[in-house]
Amino acid sequence: MTTRQKEMEKLEKTVKDNAQSIQLQQSLLEENVVNIENLQIQMTEVCSQLKELKDLCSGRNVDQRMIRVGRLDFPRFNGEDVEGWLYKCNHFFSMDKTPVHLKTQYAVINLEGVALQWHQGYITSQDRNIEAIPWGDYSRSILNRFSTRLSEEPIEELKNLQQTGTLQEYCDAFDALLNRVKLCEDYAAGLFVAGLKPEIRCLVKIFKPKTLRDAMAMAKQQEIVYSTLFGYKEIKKSVTNPITAVQKSNSTVFPYKAASTSVNPSATLSLPTPPAAKMIKPIRKVSSKEAEEKRAKGECFWCPEKYTPNHNCKFKQIYNLEIAADEESEQVLENDEIQIQQMQMDPQISLHALMGVPSYSTMKIIGTIGTKQLQILIDSGSTHNFLDSNLAIKLQCPTQEVSAMSVTVADGNKLPCAKLCPNFQWLMQGVWFKADVLLLPLKNYDMVLGVQWLQTLDDIIWNFKVLTMQFKIGNQSFVLKGSHNIGGGAVVGGRCRQQEGGSQQVV
């Protein structure tokens, strides 16, 4: 029993100790709850202070404009460049977070000269104080008074803008007009490239820039390359060259509406064109008396030999005879004449040029005139130069009426031709050329260059295998590179049909 009593006493003591520990823990827990409540109250106060500080920073309750990182000076205005001044004012209001009701008053303080005089008259004519005038109304009024661009059309000027001086001047003028309109990036880049000089525009267009930044960078690179290849020394030297002496007296400006840009005469090369007298001789007038004498003697009108049905005149030409009736007075004798339009040789054009059939004696070149790409065929089988009549109408080329003539085709057919385009100019692989061309309806090519043009090049090295043509003008050598023809079968008549494997068959 004694042992059990001791155990019971020991157990009771342990229970009492645990009870005391539990009471101590409860008192500590209650104390912690109080501390947590105090912390919550403090956190609430801190959050309210942070909210007030946030409101202070955002300018909701307190004006934050006195707290600035740097100094801001309001732009002053004396009546010049009102668009630029308004842009600076709006930017200042955005940086300064100026209240709406104070914007007009801020602007008035910085007026001077004629602008201040206008403001005084403007306020006098208003039935309200300066505090009641919104900034939008005031800015529109001052813009209408001092702007010099209200009657202009910036988008039209931007489309018609062309580079006539340096590239930097063109960029400055383009930026000034672009700031007045809103355009998408690729359209603005296209307008910028279209206004460049031909020698810069041609290569920039190859890369098709999509942004104005890329277009300006490419144009500057091309200007550097062009000035390096054709610097001031080369330009000054080329002016004294007899080949380009023609350009000094005749301005090389495109006479076509499709290409309204002017070409720098010192940077272009114009080939010597055979005189018109070599191709078309002036009208020969024969009196009716002389014609009667020839007829009485039985002689040919064009040579002293006797005329027979089988007569073969040594002066083989095309003639246009107009014999008028005789009158009694001497004045009528001058009007009764035979007008003869004679050519040195019959104009001839090959079947390759008309039908577009590739040949080993021809070479195709890609040329340009303004923004128009030309499909040019250099053809030794054609005697003269020919231009598509429909293209001449589109480009509004200046033409001259010539006496009706027939152009002989290689198959014996004849095509009528009655118009000539003198001094036609085009760009071919970076070099400017000029020549007289006859107008014919060409379906497969825009232009055909025949022997008339080839004979102006003097000695020619023409490699038909690699399609290159080398020639020299003065002390300068030039090389034209042609495009490769697919197939090369000859066609005597009929149509050419493409077969499998790239071969051609006459059908």
Report on the architecture of this protein.
- By secondary structure, this protein is an alpha+beta fold.
- Among the domains are: 1-62; 82-146, no CATH class; 282-340, no CATH class; 348-506, Beta Barrel (Cathepsin D, subunit A, domain 1), CATH 2.40.70.10.
- The protein has helices at residues 2-58, 82-96, 103-109, 114-125, 135-146, 154-160, 167-178, 185-194, 198-207, 212-229, 232-239, 245-249, 276-279, 288-297, 330-335, 351-355, 389-395, 451-454; strands at residues 284-287, 337-340, 348-349, 362-369, 372-379, 386-388, 400-409, 414-428, 431-440, 447-449, 460-463, 468-473, 476-481, 496-498, 504-506.
- The strands form four sheets. The chain has a six-stranded mixed barrel with strand order 4-5-10-6-9-8. A three-stranded antiparallel β-sheet has the order 11-12-13, with no helix packed on it. A two-stranded antiparallel ribbon has the order 1-2.
- The longest helix has 57 residues, at 2-58.
- The model is unreliable at 232-281, 324-344 and 486-507 (pLDDT under 50).
- One of its GO terms (biological process) is proteolysis.
